[in-house]
Amino acid sequence: MTDGDAALDEAWGSILATLEKDERVTPQLYGFLSLVEPKGIMAGTFYLEVPNEFTRGMIEQRSRVPLLSAIGGLDSSLEVSTFAIVVNPEIEQEILQTGTDPVPVEAAPAPAYAEAPAQVAPPAPPSPEVTVAPRATDTRLNPKYSFDNFVIGQSNRFAHAAAVAVAEAPAKAYNPLFIYGDSGLGKTHLLHSIGHYAMSLYPGIRVRYVSSEEFTNDFINSIQNNRGASFQARYRNIDILLIDDIQFLQRAVETQEAFFHTFNTLHDHNKQVVITSDLPPKMLTGFEDRMRSRFEWGLITDVQAPDLETRIAILRKKAQSEKVMVPDDILEFMATKVSSNIRELEGTLIRVTAFASLNRTPVDMSLVQTVLKDLITLDDDNVIAPVDIITATADYFKLSVDDLYGSSRSQAIATARQIAMYLCRELTNLSLPKIGQLFGNRDHTTVMYANKKISELMKERRSIYNQVTELTSRIKQTRR
Ligand SMILES: Nc1ncnc2c1ncn2[C@@H]1O[C@H](COP(=O)(O)OP(=O)(O)OP(=O)(O)O)[C@@H](O)[C@H]1O
Question: Which residues bind ATP (predicted)?
């Protein structure tokens, strides 16, 4: 990586000089570009740091094309062809706390870009290998997960930059991109973000997100129903395959074989593959060597547990998106109390905001302490089995375990089932498809829906809040 040296400053200086003369770059836009700190060049990508998301958005949406052409004019010995923008989390945090935004003076206020489409840079041309036929593809992307709401910190900075680079230049930057790390640290979030961002840059691009459990089910169904051809079409006629939690293909010999062929076809045709896993390729047991070695062809990067600052920034972002006011000292208190699993951090915030909303009180320290008292913090010695959650839920609602696994749609059973799913999601490390399987082979979207529904209902109905809280403390007692 060319880093902080004179060559880097010189390269960025020359880009700025070109952009200043480019008539597509307005003085306002130039103001944003002048906030950029060049950080380094790696594998053909120029890494640029900006102070906040707003600046990133302005540069990415409005000066992408001129910036790419200016990069194209650099000395070829630098071997740089694209760029990736990262937001400096320290500066961004300061801005969010103080409310002062270092937008260039001439550029603020900036609604002009919404009002003056003529100034908006045209979307980037698709890279030649990308098929842009405008056809509807079932991408299975979750709109909740985008780069815009992903908080960057030391723990995930590199994975984030690699994910952005892949979305901007599919099959060019790194192929495959392999992201690994413990549960709940943002791998799925990054996968979906790649999909959304690539689709915004290349309209018509065919993206498919799939968990490895869904891939397995799909494959098995296709064999059972003699629909091999449509299975192949679904996974091969695409431009980007995002496959989550590949470790679940361990020892599934035939599914691995199917994935091996899918991977080869996509890779041979310059299509992007992004893979996530809980372990790096070398440590993935139960995979053939030829499979593991393919995982290592591109770039391998990890996501780690976020440090305290990043946890605070994540909580702050979630609170903002939920439109709840949570003072900084309370965010910090919560981030200190809750372990590093981000899913659990989010669960805490949901409980706190639900409690405040039900009681129509602001979020203050005593409220947070009351709520946290009932929460379980997960650590290695305190693993909760889904069966404990399901048994406790059935018992609590005076139902049978089979009622929860079964298909009854009666309101009482359906709500109890949704609460059990919500608690499985919050209190265990199980993925959505795994929870779906547990509850009578339901689709992962059913679990996603239950999770959303119960989070919302907790804010609106005291009875639901109380049920979830009481159940949690019962489960907690069984762990003691
Ligand atoms: N850096 C981040 N910024 C904002 N939210 C984050 C970040 N990292 C994780 N999250 C949130 O934490 C939750 C868990 O993340 P995610 O599901 O992506 O984890 P994961 O690593 O894929 O876990 P698993 O291996 O269990 O599937 C999600 O709601 C996600 O939005």
Answer: 184, 186-188
Comparing 205 with 10, which gets the higher pLDDT? 205
Element (H, E) at 311: helix 308-321
H or E stretch including 240?
strand 240-244
pLDDT at 79: 83
Output the pLDDT for position 5. Answer: 67
How far is the C-alpha of 48 from the C-alpha of 278, rounded, in Å?
29
Indicate the range of 208-222, 250-264, 393-407, 432-446 predicted with least confidence. 432-446
Distance 391 CA to ligand 1 centre (A): 27
Contact 464, 350 (CB under 8 A): no
Nearest CA among 290, 283, 346, 359 for reference residue 319: 346
Asked if 217 contacts 184 with a C-beta cutoff of 8 angstroms, the reply is no
pLDDT for res 112: 23
Nearest by Cα to 447 from 172, 231, 142: 142
Which of 187, 151, 170, 180 lies closest to 273, judged by CA? 170
Give tens-digit pLDDT for 344-382: 888 889 989 998 989 888 889 888 888 887 665 555 455
187 is in an annotated binding site: yes
Residue 22's closest CA among 53, 83, 65?
65
Across the chain, what does the average pLDDT equal? 82
Retrieve residue 110's tokens: 């900036």
Is the peptide bond prior to 176 cis by the omega test (within 30 degrees of 0)? yes
Closest C-alpha residue for ligand 1 atom 9: 186
- For residue 149, the ligand 1 atom closest to its alpha carbon is 4
Chain length of the chain: 480
Q: How far is CA 417 from the centre of its chain?
A: 27
The sheet with strand 45-50 has its strands ordered as 37-42, 45-50, 82-87
Determine whether the shortest distance from the Cβ of 151 to ligand 1 is under 6 A. Answer: yes
Question: How far, in Å, from the CA of 150 to the mean position of ligand 1?
Answer: 9
Residue 188 annotated as binding site: yes
Mean predicted confidence (pLDDT) in 335-340? 81
Whether 479 and 375 have beta carbons less than 8 Å apart is answered as no
What interface predicted TM-score (ipTM) does this complex get? 0.98
6 C-alpha to ligand 1 centroid (Å) = 37
